[in-house]
Amino acid sequence: xxxxxISKLAGLLLACAAAGCATGASAETNLKVFVTSQGQxxxxxxxxxxxxxxNPGIKVSVELGGTTSDMQAQYLNTVLTAKDSSLDVLxxxxxxxxxxxxxxxxxxxxTDMSAYLRAYAEANTIDGKVVALPAFADSxxxxxxxxxxxxxxxxxxxxxDELADAAKKVADGEKNPNLQGLSFQGKAIEGxxxxxxxxxxxxxxxxxxxxxxxxxxxAATKSLALWKGFAxxxxxxxxxxxVATDDTRKEFQAxxxxxAVNWAYAWAMSQGAESAVSGKVGVARLPAIKGGxxxxxxxxxxxxxxxxxxxxxxxxxxxxxxxxxEVSKYMAINGSLLPTYGKLYKDADVxxxxxxxxxxxxxVETAKPRPVTPRYNEVSEVIRTTVNAVLAGATTPADGxxxxxxRLKRIIR
Amino acid sequence: MTTTSTFKSEADxxxxxxxxLSRWSDPDDTTLAVILLAPAAILLSVMIVYPVSRLxxxxxxxxxxxxxxxxxxxxxxxxxxxxxxPVFWQATWNTVLITLITVPGSLVVGFALALxxxxxxxxxWPVRLSLLIPxxxxxxxxxxxxxxxFHSEYGVVNDVLNRIGLPSVIWFNSPRLAxxxxxxxxxxxxxxxxxxxxLAGLQTIPRSLYEAAxxxxxxxxxxxxxxxxxxxxxxxxxALIFRTITALQTFDIPYMMxxxxxxxxxxxxxxYIHQNTVSFLDLGYGSALAVVMFGLSxxxxxxxxxxxxxxxxxx
Lengths: 413, 315
Known about the structure:
The complex is a heterodimer of chains A (about 425) and B (about 325).
Chain A: H1 3-19, H2 21-24, E1 29-35, H3 41-54, E2 58-64, H4 69-81, E3 89-93, H5 97-103, H6 118-123, E4 125-126, E5 129-130, E6 133-139, E7 141-145, H7 146-151, H8 160-174, E8 180-183, H9 190-202, E9 208-209, E10 212-213, H10 217-232, H11 245-253, E11 257-262, H12 265-270, E12 281-284, E13 298-305, H13 312-322, H14 325-335, H15 348-353, H16 361-366, H17 376-392, H18 397-411
Parallel strand pairs in A: 1-2, 1-3, 8-11
Antiparallel strand pairs in A: 3-13, 4-5, 6-13, 7-11, 7-12, 9-10
Helix pairs in contact in A: 9-10, 9-17, 10-18, 17-18
Chain B: H1 20-25, H2 29-58, E1 61-62, E2 72-73, H3 77-81, H4 86-117, H5 124-136, H6 139-149, H7 156-163, H8 175-202, H9 207-215, H10 220-248, H11 252-257, H12 269-279, H13 283-311
Antiparallel strand pairs in B: 1-2
Helix pairs in contact in B: 4-8, 4-10, 4-12, 5-8, 6-8, 8-10, 10-13, 12-13
């Protein structure tokens, strides 16, 4: 047998692996962008096409990940732990930059953040370094059926009690067994963290203060009891523990929901050709706990450059483009994604496409961020699984609140 | 040196002076043994010995990628953390329970299927094929399919219940019902594997034994308990070892069906390991949990092996 031939072959393979056979050959730079499937990937693609046309020699391909924020994070965790260089640009949920920066997975970007909404400038600046640039802003809103509220002479509710009364009144009048009063996220997904936090914050409480746990068990019990009460009283459906964000969007769009808690992306689709409620939808601030203030959860996604990308400069240039006012405006008009620049909220083209964006800026600006910690994934898991257990009836609200407190104590010390 | 290569005197053929090529083309016994065993030994060390030792080593480290700190030796700290971790206990208990329910469950169902498939059908392949399909299906698909079956609104199970006049059940709202649904899916999936192994065993039993029993006037039941079952014992034990170890590692089906919900009520140990390593990036604690699972698997395997040796069934 010829060992010489084998060693030559092995040498060739090694050389190939070292040089990166797939990309080394041509002068063209291929960038791979990871986009969340809920972040309007088709519309981003049209922008990437334009970018390719303007920048000869750059090709951009899109990779879509899991269907929920946590599935995407699991995928990115696997890729980046392995220091894999195949992804150059990453779209990240607003809760992730802190964690990714701590792990050393994103490259810092030297840029001025003052033009962005303050919440996003803050979320993307870790220890004085900009670790990602905003892709789009977001917060949770109350979607409602304008036609049905008008029919019964109702105003968008300011408190959750008012919402329950309105739902009851409409249900009694409509006598439609398929019409749900309220749809929200009860499945153990990232959205369920906001489900818990919105009424908790509404009572003026916080989860962390100066990096220390500052948990109010009573407020937590009240928050869990509020949602469980909706399921028990029939305002929400009994299997609410199975409902994820996009289920809420689909059921509302099919005309089966009076009130829905959802992010801005649901608007564009509710006005689309496949929607049963086009032209009948209103958007308002989320209600408050009686006697509390109206609060909502800060969302939004960011563009990060992978620290393992072999095309750092090209990737940063692409990210700066994707985070530019021009792109933000385009995504607002075409994808109903909230702008990351304050001035765009009153832009005539934007408000013509999405009228309610004109009133959305103060809501986004007062939206509260979820606890910022590198161990956020554990915080999230504790909260969302408990929300899910309470809504399923496997745990009582009081026990659930005690469990959250006990488990958070082990994570945030 | 070897004592077996006596057909040529060592003095005639001093190893050192032999040309390089002829040592390869006509090796002595020791060299041959080394050459033949090397691929297996290398493969085992690269694929099993190294990862397992690395896992055990990592389990003694404080290594969390979210901390931003370098790995630090932590002794038994990861293991000490387990007794106070309620999710660890729940996941371990669920894993043990899944093993206790689905291993006998799939053995009984698989045995029945194997006996059925062993009947003298005119066309054997459709029977064999239908036996194979659940086994050939990827585990995560099976989990997804059963997840849809038991979905409270779109699922076929509730549809059937409604059609016979019973109310819908929200399966995944109840820890017990969700757990039962998961066990059912696992039994469905695993029975075909059991059936195939048992079927192979059934076909090694000589027909003459049954004919002799027939002559002696033994009935069907008697033949089953006196011939089939005893002769199948080694086959069954092997099938049980495989099945038990995979049951202890249960991940895909509950992960896809319930994601461990409601809450963490149906999480398994393998899911908790995955969560700690892949989601929480706490590689130290995740490794320690994996070491516990590894120990559990070794323990069960040792018990089975003892059982075979005790009964003298091992060849």
